[in-house]
Amino acid sequence: MIGVRGVEKSFGKEKVLKGVSLDIPPAEVFGLLGPSGSGKTTLIRILAGTLAADRGEVTLDGVRMPRRESLGRIGFMPQEDALYKDLSGQDNLRFFGRLYGLRGPRLRGRIDDVLALTGLSGDARKRVANYSGGMRKRLSLATALLHDPDVLLLDEPTVGIDPVLRRTIWEEFARLRAQGRTLLVTTHVMEEADRCDRAGLLYGGDLIACGPVADLKASAPGGTLEGLFFQAAG
Amino acid sequence: MATFAIMVRVIRQITGDKRTVGLILVVPLLMLTLIWLLLGKTGYVPTLAASDLPAKLAAALEDGDGVRLTETDAAAARAGVEDGTYDASLRLEDGKLRLLFAASDPGKDALVMKALQTAMRDLVPTGIPGLLSAPEAEYLYAGSSDSSFDSLGYVLLGVLAFFFVFILAGIAFVRERTGATLERLLASPVRRIQVVLGYTAGFGVFATVQCTLMVVFAVAVLGMHIAGSLALTVLVMVLIGLTATAIGAFASIFAENEFQIMQFIPVVVVPQFFFTGLISLDTIPLGLGVLSRVMPVYYACDALRLVLVQGAGFRTILPQLGMLVGFIVLFSAANVLALKKHRRL
Questions:
Q1: Do A99 and B185 touch (CB under 8 A)?
Q2: Contacts of B172 (CB under 8 A, 6+ apart)
Q3: Residue A1: in which H helix or E strand, if any?
Q4: pLDDT digits 0-9 by tens, A194-234
Q5: Residues of chain A by 3-state class (helix, strand, coil), percent to 5
Q6: For the domain with range B47-139, which CATH number is right: 3.40.50.300, 3.20.20.70, 3.40.1710.10, 3.30.1300.10?
Q7: Which among B8, B188, B193 is the top mutation candidate for probing chain A, defined by the most A β-carbons within 10 Å of its own β-carbon?
Q8: How do residues B12-60 score in pLDDT, each as one tens digit?
Q9: Could you give the 3-state DSSP secondary structure of residue A155?
Q10: How far is residue A8's CA from residue A19's CA, in Å, rounded to a whole number?
Q11: B341 shares contact with chain A (CB less than 8 Å)
Q12: Helices B192-216 & B27-39, crossing angle to 10 degrees?
């Protein structure tokens, strides 16, 4: 489904990605793990097509990205909230929905669905400026899910969300996977890795390990994913 | 579709914020009113020293109430103008009326001229020799200026239309960049040109409302004289508003926050104000007047002057309109290219 081949990216003199390659098959929840500054956000932005790689390529179903026609199949949730704070939650969704070609009853239906899923139905008419941090995060996730994309690229989707809602959201991820969707989720919370099918560990711009979460743990010193990072840190 | 969605969103963002609506709709009117008050009619009666005047003219000036007349000799009159006792002096020399002002003060000078013209009109039937020709004005310190609201109004309309839209569009685009909404926007299948067109259309709607309101207010409430067509005036102002949108969005590329947009005001807005014809372009030293040729506001004000003062039609101002459209296309294209930084499609 998603193919990443030798992707390199530098900002100025700093090399943020040093030749990352990985494959994500359809209907999988893939966790991209790593400490802050390891290159997770850079990689996900390259996948979303909002940042160009210096070298290497990204493919979606074998077609080289970015292609404008294929962008409609991707749902992207940036790390920042990326919402219009002077608009209501509903107006934000309406706007982004129209960009993806949704309209009329289908747009209204999808907006109701994602609002219900993220527990924001009662706050849809409030201005985002008056939302709490967690509510903004949820609205941002709702926006990424809105056009029912095949591929979801979610950058730290559960940061600042309370444990109960976090569980609901992970259940939703599992449901989406069951429907054949592919999800790439970045996180630096290792417990969340347990909910992923497979995981890739980014450290200092290198993919130091990649595979089924259970296998990774088995190979790790101390039997935890942290062990792999400690090992890499030397 | 995407263009329309962006336009609707921009409009919603503006109308959702009462302060912004006030800035667009009310503040320009306040500024026009303020300047109208500063340049317009006052209760002030200027002082005029008269020497060697025909008795009839002196009497007419006294009766007119337009000036406070003091009859004195020529030397005393001149000294009085120098030390500020009198706003002007008037004498008849070689059959011609000569006015002497201290320095150019558009407000006072205009009042004196008006009083004199009124008095002379009353005297025309009596046929005093020398009074049929216009009086010659001299200045002790500086050149003449006939500025008043009527002849300055067009500059203000052009500058205000540019100024407010520039700030709003610049800030809106900076927020779009810093708030990462631009990244999310460009992760969708939208075309870069649709983003720029959507913004242009959204601000175009506001520029139209704002400019119509300003022109109608200036004419209907402030009584600004308008020789040409009202619709043509609004068209020129909408075009300068769209130019301001494109330049504001362009400036936002070089700004990291809202305050940095404000820093562009002395760079982008103020120089254009100087080159609008407020200062005669022919008299600017070192041939710097040619700089006006790269300033959109100059073309807008030139077109507004032609329409408002000379009553010019569409064909006459076609070159100016063409330049404005050129600026819009140029900066919009630059903005489409600049979005490549985020996405190469």
A1: yes
A2: B10, B13, B199, B248
A3: none
A4: 899 999 999 999 999 999 998 998 888 888 888 888 888 87
A5: 40, 30, 30
A6: 3.40.1710.10
A7: B188
A8: 998 888 888 888 888 889 988 888 887 765 667 888 888 888 888 888 8
A9: strand
A10: 5
A11: no
A12: 40
Tokens of A171: 């259940």
A124, containing H or E segment: none
Domains and CATH numbers, chain A: 1-73+153-164+184-234 (3.40.50.300)
β-partners of residue B136 are B98
Beta strands A63-65 and A55-60, pairing class: antiparallel
Q: What distance lies between CA A4 and its chain's CA centroid?
A: 15
Q: CA-CA distance, B169 to A88, in Å (whole number)?
A: 21
The tally of CA atoms less than 13 A away on the side-chain side of residue A232 is: 18
Burial of B320 (0-12, 13-18, 19+ CB in 10 A): buried
Residue A143: list chain B partners with CB under 8 A.
184
Q: B11 vs A189, B207, B234, B291, CA distance in Å?
A: 40, 11, 20, 35
Residue positions counted in chain A: 234
Strand order from edge to edge, sheet including A2-11: A14-24, A2-11, A55-60, A63-65
Domain boundaries, chain B: 2-38+148-341, 47-139
Residues of A within 8 A of B189 (CB-CB) are: 68-69, 71-72, 99-101
- Give the model confidence (pLDDT) of A144-189 as tens digits: 999 999 999 999 998 878 888 888 889 999 999 999 999 999 988 8
